[in-house]
Design a protein that fits this description.
By secondary structure, the protein is an alpha+beta fold. Helices cover 34% and strands 13% of the residues.
Length: 61
């Protein structure tokens, strides 16, 4: 397996899907390659989680 250069579906940037990442995906049984670069994955995850992490988000005190 060699590193693969993929294109992010959100921002269009190219990113590398390394051999180690490919092995991890295969080990976990993931059938699809990642479609977003690390920055876009992080942004999407933050939106999905309310932007505040796993301990209550943007709670008012």
């Amino acid at each position: 397996m060699a590193d693969k250069v993929l294109k992010c579906k959100d921002c269009g940037a190219e990113f590398v899907f390394t051999e180690n990442e490919q092995a991890f995906y295969k080990e976990k049984g993931f059938e699809n390659e990642p479609q977003r670069c690390a920055a876009c994955r992080k942004a999407k995850k933050a939106l999905r989680n309310g932007g505040g992490g796993s301990y209550g988000g943007n709670r008012q005190r």
